[in-house]
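Hello again, I could really use a second opinion on something today. I owe you a coffee for this, so here goes:
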Amino acid sequence: MSQLVYDVTLRFCDRYIDRRSRTHDQMVQAARSGVQNIAEGSQASGTSKKTELKLTNVARASLEELGLDYEDFLRHRALPIWPRVDRRRDALIRGRPYSADDVVTWARTVLRSSASPPAEVAANGVLALIAVAKAMLDRQIAALARAFQEEGGFTERLYRVRSAARRQK
């Protein structure tokens, strides 16, 4: 989901945000950070649950920042932020888009049936995807925290294994 947010954000920024602006770079980097920190955290998971948890939290924070940028975009243009229960938003989430093209298809459907401008539909669509990604990361962070609390980190587990081996000798 974070990868999809990144892909759609690239398209959104290239279409609606001046490429030379700091906002363009900031939004693309926040979306990229969401993806990259998840990947780095997963890579570190074998040796450091603490690092995995930290990087997953960084990814979550990056997506939070990105969501605020989309809200600012809408607010500065006097466009509405759709409520969580909006049917258009629900249609996107229920459709389980896999690619940026899937999101474009959803947006075209919305545009055919409403008077909303394309920028409103696009920004609110990405906000819906960000909300899903953040909810997924919230569940992952909670599970990682529970596992860390119950099992400890790699160093603690290694110490227990070494201690048990010494006792057996």
